[in-house]
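Chapter review. Work through the record for DoxX family protein before attempting the end-of-chapter questions.
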Amino acid sequence: MNNVASILLLAFLALTFLQSGYEKIFYWKENVAWLKEHFSKTILKNLVPPALLHLLIVELISGILCVVGAIQLVTNSGREFGFYGAVFSCICLLMMLFGQRLAKDYDGARTIVIYFIPAVMAVFWLN
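Structure tokens for DoxX family protein:
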């Protein structure tokens, strides 16, 4: 099996985004309340629910594509779904990074960079 590292990265991204999506779906009100406070001094203060919904959709797309991509790598060494899963993961993380920087939460932004590095590695390896 030549794709073990790529499969592990896709599993990491799938777990990250599917779990995050699950949290947003089942704890929507708590997330919205916390984020309204987090973004209260930014231009996003009145856009939290639609922005969170948009982020949720991108997270679910990312997670599903990563799962399908890992399965595709195992079954026939195809890379298309995994590549797009990794790209969507990067887009999702950039969206989060933008929000954290806008809210001046530099520690939160730094944490997102930790996730961004393996996502970019996945894009590179699956390209």
